[in-house]
Design brief:
366 residues, 434 Repressor (Amino-terminal Domain)
Length: 366
């Protein structure tokens, strides 16, 4: 029988669900940010007054009061293990921003098996849950890397494992996020109906962060089908949810404004190419230079928008600046857009595009 969440785990879950950062919580309860962190890490045992306060602020309907009365569970005895693997995850993600998934996956995949094996054999329940949650993070990111490699089957399987591991660690919210990811798989396949269907399913989540991401995929699905009014409604809903969200564990860590980026690509699919190009011109400088994969993906989409809007020479110049980065990240999703740009050049036949078209061909058929 699965363990019920601790007071500490439920406070953190409810705070994230309400879209509150630790800094914002300090304005609602008489505790410092550091003390709040200790409470959420289980290092402070709740007294009745604290429990009533958090239950009221987080609208928990007495649930937190009940959990505060439950017997205390031991704090994980091996924090160093969790910290080490957490740090390694950040290292893998940093590599994924800059390098091909073929480089990242061979070292990323074994960590999933190690973490899940350690979680199964952990004597300390707290440590076991922490290991399961880390295994889920590794599996979810590996799924994204497999999608970047062009293996949707492996991507879906790793996403399924991430959901399973997250449930074992006490985080059922990841199941909703998996629907966002599956919606994204279908978006890249050009299946508007499935994109919207899975996005709607994810939108039923209690998590504001997942709802916001789901609304963006739903908008892009509608744009793919040419349903402009529904697309705009979903974009407006995503923007409203994003304003209520202080931080998110989900989605890209490279984009400052995910709503603007999704709006730009939706506008492109709806034939509003000049507007899409204008948005991407504004957003591209905001993407960190180290986020090479994101800069390549959205830089190429920017070029496509400019070319479709009639400024083909400028688009070719933008792509020339991206070619080395495209070779480095070797992204299957980037290659979808690169193929679209190649077809556009073949149809328009601009004089400035001959050399670009040749280099694109070499990349696509290497």
């Amino acid at each position: 029988m699965p363990l019920s969440p601790t007071f500490a785990q439920e406070v953190r879950r409810l705070r994230n669900e309400r879209g509150l950062s630790l800094s914002q919580m300090t304005g609602l309860v008489p505790y410092s940010k550091g003390h709040l962190s200790k409470i959420e890490n289980g290092q402070v045992h709740p007294n009745p007054e604290m429990a009533r306060l958090f239950d009221n602020v987080l609208q928990a309907d007495g649930h937190l009061i009940e959990l505060a009365d439950a017997p205390a569970r031991p704090i994980p005895s091996d924090h160093s293990t969790l910290l080490t693997f957490d740090s390694m995850f950040d290292h893998h993600r940093a590599l994924g921003h800059r390098l091909s998934s073929d480089v990242v996956l061979p070292s990323l995949r074994p960590q999933i098996d190690v973490l899940s094996s350690m979680a199964r054999s952990a004597d300390d329940p707290g440590l076991g849950r922490g290991l399961w949650l880390l295994a889920a993070r590794y599996a979810e990111y590996a799924g994204w890397m497999e999608q970047e490699r062009g293996d949707d089957g492996s991507a879906a399987e790793l996403t399924r494992r991430a959901v399973e591991y997250a449930a074992k660690g006490g985080d059922p919210e990841l199941a909703s996020w998996a629907c966002v990811r599956i919606s994204e798989f279908n978006l890249y396949r050009g299946d508007a109906h499935a994109t919207v269907g899975y996005a709607r399913k994810a939108g039923k989540s209690r998590s504001i962060a997942v709802q916001a991401a789901a609304a963006l995929r739903e908008a892009q699905g509608y744009a793919l089908a040419g349903a402009a009014d529904r697309c705009q409604t979903a974009l407006d809903r995503a923007a409203e949810l994003q304003r209520a969200l202080s931080e998110s564990r989900y989605g890209s860590t490279s984009l400052v404004d995910q709503v603007a980026i999704a709006k730009a690509w939706s506008f492109h699919d709806l034939g509003r190419h000049a507007e899409a190009a204008e948005i991407l011109d504004t957003q591209m400088p905001l993407i960190a230079p180290t986020a090479l994969r994101a800069r390549t993906r959205f830089g190429l989409r920017r070029a496509l928008a400019h070319a479709s809007a009639g400024d083909v020479d400028h688009a070719c110049a933008l792509v020339v600046d991206l070619l080395d980065d495209i070779r480095q990240v070797r992204s299957a999703t980037v290659h979808i857009d690169l193929t679209a740009f190649s077809k556009l050049l073949s149809r328009l036949r601009p004089a400035s595009g001959r050399d670009v078209a040749r280099e694109i061909g070499e990349i696509l058929f290497a």
